[in-house]
Amino acid sequence: MTTPFSVDRRRVVVVGAARSGVAAAELLVRRGAIVTLSDARTDLADAERLRARGVSLALGGHDQAGLSSADLIVLSPGVSPRQPDVAAARDAGVPVIGELELASRWLRGRIVAITGTKGKSTTTTLTGRMLDAAGFRVLVGGNIGLALSAQVDESTDETIHVVETSSFQLETTETFHPWIAVVLNFSPDHLDRHADVQEYAAAKARIFANQTGRDWAVINADDQAVLAMASAARSRRLAFSMAGRADADVRVEDAVIVRRHASATESLVPLSSVRLLGRHLVADVLAASAVASLCGADAAAMTRAVEAFTGLEHALEPVAEVGGVHFVNDSKATNIEAALRAIESFDGPLVVIVGGRFKGGRFADLEPALRARRATVIAIGEAAPLVEEALAGSIAVHRVRSMADAVRTGFVLAHPGETVLLAPACASFDMFRDYAERGRVFKQEVATLASRIREGEKRGQ
Question: What is the per-residue pLDDT for 443?
C-alpha cells in the first residue's frame, strides 16, 4: 500500500511568489508544513495576508542556506529548476518538485491534462464547458485560471480536473498521472528557458510518463512531432485530425465533427456551431470534443457548449471597428507558430503588430503568409531589429516605440475593410507584465483611437 504524501511539520520552501507559488504556499500551510515563500522581489501585494496565514516570506533574493536546509522545495512554474540556488540545493539532496506535481499528489478526482505549443487555453476552457454542460463535476485551471493547488480542497472522487499544463510545469513532475493526456501540437518555443528544442519536447512528453493501459492519450494525427512524442506512451490512443486522415478517430465529415468507433461513426458537433475565428481553433474544438466524448459527454451538451463559446480574451479576439478598420487582439500568440496561424486566419490584407521579447524561432517563417496577404508589419519591443532584419527584404516593416504608436500607425496604414492584427510571436516581458496586460493595453489604445476619431467627427459637423 502506498504511503500517503505528507508534509506535516516538514520545512518547505516555495520558490516564486506568482499565482501558482502563492497557492502552493497556502496549501502547504493547510497541510501542516512549515512554509517559507521565497521571491526575488522585495515587496508582495499579498504579503500581509500570507503572513497572517502562517507563511514566512523571504524576499529580495533566494537564501541558499534556507534552500539547502529545507525538507522539500516547490517551484513556481516561472522558476527554472536550473536556477543556481535551486540546483545547488538539489545537488545537496533536497527534493525539488513543481507546484503541479505537489497539488496532483493530493487530488482525489481524475485529471485531464492538456498541453501543446498553442491552443492550450482554448481547448482547456472549452473542454471544461462541455463537461459542465453534460452535468459532470469539473474544475478547470492549472496554467490558466486557478492554480491546481487552489483546487485541492474542492477535489472529490467525482471531480474531473481539466488542467492546462505548460512545459515549465511538466518538466518538474515525477508522479503526475493524467487519466487523459492531450497533446495538441508541437513547434519550437521557450528556447529562452529550455536548452534546445529536444529538451522542450522532452518536457512536453512527460505528460505521458506515468500513464498506464487504462489511461488515454489524445493526440494530433496531423502533427508528426506529436506522434513521435506519444510513441512510447503506454496509454490507449485517440487521434484527432483536421486534415481528415482516414486513420483518425475524431475528424470532420460532411461539416460535422465525428468520432469513429469500431462498428459505427458517432456525430459529435456540427461545424456550424463553432463561433471562433481561425481554422486552427477548429482543431482545438476537435480535441475538446475527443476528450468530452471519452468522458461520456453527450453530443447535445457538447454542441451547446460550442455554440455559447466565442473564444478567450487575447486569443483572436475581435476588439473594434474604427473607421472601417478591424482590430483583432491575439496577444496570446507568443511564439512564431501561433502568430503564423493567426495570420493565416485572414484572407484579406493585414497590418500585423509583431515583436516583444524574443523566445527563439525564425521570423522569416512568417514571410510567405504575410506576403500572400499583402501585409505590412509594425515591429515593437526588444525583437524589433530582428523582425526588421528577417522581413524587411520583402515585407514593409515600420518600427515604433510603444503600443499607442503601433495602434495609430496600424490605423493609418490599413484601408477600410482591412485588419490590424496584434500577433506578437514573442513574450511580453520587455514592455508588459504578461501577455494579458499587453492585450489589454492594445484594446485600450484602440478605444482611445476610436474616441479621438468620434470627437474629431463631432467637431467637424
Answer: 98
